[in-house]
Amino acid sequence: MNEIIISFFIIVGTFFVISGSIGMLRFPDVYSRLHAATKSSTLGVAGILIGAFLYFFLDEGVIAGKLLLGILFLLLTAPVGGHMISRAAYIRGVSVWANHIEKDELHDAILKKIQQKQ
User: Fold this and answer.
1) Burial class (CB in 10 A: 0-12, 13-18, 19+), 47
2) How far are the Cα atoms of 54, 92, 110 from residue 104, in angstroms, in the given order?
C-alpha cells in the first residue's frame, strides 16, 4: 500500500511538471507562460518531494526535514517570483496575446504608484 501512495504523488507531480513544460511551449504570451511555469511546476515539484518524503518516512523510517523545508520554500517563493516577473513585464509594457479579452484592472494602481514616486 505504501508503494501505491508514494507512486501516486510522484506520478501526479510528474504530470504537473510535464503539463507546465507543454504550457511553456504552447502558450502565446509571457503572462500565460509565467502561469504555466509557476503554478504547475510548483505543484509538480511539491508532489514529487511529498512522494520522496513519504518514501523515506514509510519505508526507511526517517523523517526528512529537508524535504519538508524544500516544499515550504518552493510554495512560498515560486508564486511570488512569478508575480514579480509578470508585474515587471507589465510595467515595461510587454503586450498580451492579440485575442486576449481586454480587462486591465492593474493600470490605475500602477499609475498611482508611479505618480506618487514623482
Assistant:
1) buried
2) 43, 15, 11
